[in-house]
């Protein structure tokens, strides 16, 4: 397309758009004027209804009081002080309530203290007051005065409700009303508007926002009358208008800006047409680019599908590895739990305890290594259990003590024992993993000398502050490597000369755990002289003073329990744990026999293994639940992935317990369900 032709077309587009904007501007101005008039009428009508309703409500509350006196033939007079106080409290417009007898004398008034000077006042000499009062009372109709100055000071409307009973006129229940407070409450949401209300004598008794009706044309002011409770000669005039002309000016400014914006858009549109015409000549090139982009998107979709498949495979791998690794660990821990109850020598008990602690630490390491999703996302969930940090720290030392001494190193300890054993609430396994990683590093990189442990604790603001350090006389860390030792897959030694094993994850996981637990870690090191790690952690104190679950006072021998597990060693371990509390369970090795046994007999509890051939634990649980909704089923598996736990609960399991199952946790679950 030729150069001059593009400009000619864009100029025509500009003129057309400007013409459209101008026509629309004047149309909008006319429509806006009509909208302003309609807005005043609609809002004014709604406001007038609200004001009229407010007046009626106050008068009706006074009528209700008078009606109770009439229906009780005067017996209700003894409650007049109490009811007057209540009605005045409920209706801010009511300033006082009084009783005027049939002769025109005010006999009672409430509140009395503020209006005492009118008690005993004879209204018969007050012509404007007495004549209307008497005339309306004879008709048995409510009387309301205009905006009147009061004897006790101030102004108000006086409303009289006649009392007729025992076939004669007894007087009136009267009240002084000032609606300013309630009217202000209604007007507060109309900040852009003004209001004037006059009584039947054209006295202004209420105004809002300093109204100036002289500034506006009649079509911008809403005029109406308020009919007060259908009373005779009680018609008030009501005017509703804008607060000032600035409000209207703001509307016009918006329209002017809209016109300016329309002109600007017209200019931009004409330029866009110009650019479009220019771009059209290059459309072939863009089509080629778009074709290549579609090919790239298709390739990305294929790669995404591959990534999703890999992620699913990773999840399945983690599930299987979790089961395969944790199953033998579960057996080891279960056997050590049983051996701890046997009559062994002191040295044998020490070895059993060390084996138990080492297995527990290994299990904690396996848990975090297998839970790759949590480590990669930085989301580490913390358990909340009761334990003693000092005892845990000592157990770490005892676990590594033999390995340290076997390497010819000296073990130095400095543990503050001046305070009592403090129990806290927190994740003991994560704390154990932190120190396990640090001590394992110290042992790996120290060939001679010592490893020193220091522990101190103090209580601050209801929390236990722990300050620990682990020092060694090992190879140390070069100064330029200290800033990166906490990075993942980073080691001081790399390449062919690397002398020490490891994947470079230990310190990275340690720092992440400390960060999640709200603590801090610092390192000081000199190359070829040694390294010192200083760790601070804080835990909330536990209110209890002991750890463990006591079943000595609970007899659970009556429980009928079925253990379903394809691993014979797991069945034996769980059976031994239950026999220690006098429970003799039934054992079976697969899902088919479990279904047969549950059909033949009723069980209180089933321990259901998840990974079993032919029928897995989820399938067996679903089948049992079709017939029995009440039986308690504990899923039991070495698979700790989130997907498996979720599937277990969805299948109908009451709990999903992970192997190895600690004896204290098992007993606590039995107490929770069967105590």
Extract low-pLDDT stretches: 494-503, 545-549
The percentage of residues in β strands lies in: 15-25%
CATH class of the largest domain: Alpha Beta
- Residue-averaged pLDDT: 82
CATH architecture of the largest domain: 2-Layer Sandwich
Number of helices: 16
For the biggest sheet, the summary is:
6 strands, antiparallel
Please state the structural category.
alpha+beta
Query: Can you count the beta strands?
Result: 22
CATH topology of the largest domain: Beta-Lactamase
Structural domain count: 3
| CATH superfamily heading of the largest domain | CHASE domain
Give a description of the structure.
The chain is an alpha+beta fold and 675 residues long. The protein has 3 domains: 1-281, 2-Layer Sandwich (Beta-Lactamase), CATH 3.30.450.350; 293-343 and 551-675, Rossmann fold; 389-540, 2-Layer Sandwich (Heat Shock Protein 90). The chain is built from 16 helices and 22 strands. The chain has helices at residues 3-71, 80-90, 127-138, 180-187, 245-280, 283-339, 346-370, 372-377, 389-406, 428-444, 506-516, 568-579, 591-600, 617-627, 642-651, 663-674, and strands spanning 94-101, 106-110, 143-144, 148-149, 155-165, 168-177, 193-198, 204-208, 221-227, 235-242, 385-387, 410-415, 424-426, 450-460, 463-472, 520-526, 530-540, 561-564, 586-588, 605-609, 632-637, 655-658. The strands form 5 sheets. Strands 1, 2, 3, 4, 5 and 6 form a 6-stranded antiparallel beta sheet that branches. Helix 1 (3-71) runs antiparallel to helix 5 (245-280) and helix 9 runs parallel beside helix 10 (428-444). The longest helix is centred in the N-terminal third of the chain and has 69 residues, at 3-71.
